[in-house]
Amino acid sequence: MSGIVYGNMSRAALDAADNNQAAHPNFAEQTAIWRVQSKRVRETYRPLLNLRYGQSARAVLDFYPSRGTGDHPLLIFVHGGYWQGGSKESVGFLARGPLASGFSVALLDYAVAPEASLGEMVDEVCQALHWLDSQASRLKFDARRIVLAGHSAGAHLMCNLLDELPILGGVAISGIYDLEPIRHSYLNERLGLNEQDVRQFSPMLMPRPSSAPLLVAVGPNELDELIRQSRDFSQAWHTPLLEVAGHEHFTILDELADQEGQLCRAVCEMVS
């Protein structure tokens, strides 16, 4: 069939299937709310900002220390943005739930396309994980109780790195796990993925690298392609799938920001 680039989809159909911002007309309003909430969380919890773990301009992280005494579990979070944008500042709001639950929280930045290749992004997030592990004593968290989480492109990156540290578990939120459709979509104009990248960096095509528990979460109001990817990936890796009722690609993060939210409770259960 002429014009088909992936599955039964044309380029236009595939572009629409992968365009979360276009699918959610409230995206600008949602991000404005996040900015206000994130600023409030930073003012309340006074994190250590822009701790440098690598050489690139974006190789920095924000560390929110637990307010309790002694060593605490750590949640490491990798933001989304389709490997081309996003920032730790934009997701500062979600630290609120884990902090209220006794965690310290590290929010990572990393180099993005087109300045960095996908392999360089994976390497940079890997570098951040090992830097944090080396700083456990100074930052006063328990290196034996780490949970790794990521959203969208961040979920993809963290699933490439589940065996880098002895984590207690991972939470992959609304992620991309098979890069082949991305290679054929508008997103690849800046990413520049080739067939080797798809084989090397698609979690769907990898054996599960870690025995640590992994929860795959997605909102039932997300794009069909995102839901399909999450369902297929959970089956491929034989790991639980949580479809978080009432949420789409962006509001699902509220379930991590809220101490009583389903995703925050899942993180807590991994260290209990």
3D structure, described in words:
The protein is α/β, with parallel strands linked by helices and 272 residues long. It has one domain: Rossmann fold, CATH 3.40.50. It contains 13 helices and 10 strands. It has helices at residues 11-17, 20-23, 27-45, 96-100, 118-134, 136-139, 153-159, 180-183, 188-191, 195-201, 224-236, 254-257, 262-271, and strands at residues 4-6, 9-10, 48-52, 60-64, 72-78, 104-108, 141-151, 169-173, 214-218, 241-243. The protein has an 8-stranded mixed sheet, sandwiched between helices. Strands 1-2 form a two-stranded antiparallel ribbon. It is globular.
List segments where confidence is low: pLDDT < 50 over at least 5 consecutive residues. none
The secondary-structure class comes to alpha/beta
The overall pLDDT average reads: 95
How many structural units, i.e. domains?
1
Evaluate the radius of gyration: 18 Å
Quickly name the level 1 CATH class. Answer: Alpha Beta
| Percent range of helical residues | 25-40%
The amount of beta strand, in percent, is 15-25%
CATH topology: Rossmann fold
What is the CATH architecture annotation?
A: 3-Layer(aba) Sandwich
Provide the spatial order of strands within the biggest beta sheet.
3-4-6-5-7-8-9-10
Terminal Cα span = 53 Å
CATH superfamily: Alpha/Beta hydrolase fold, catalytic domain
Q: Provide the succession of SSEs.
A: EEHHHEEEHEHHEHEHHHEHEHH
Q: Tell me the number of helical segments per DSSP (H or I, 4 or more residues long).
A: 13
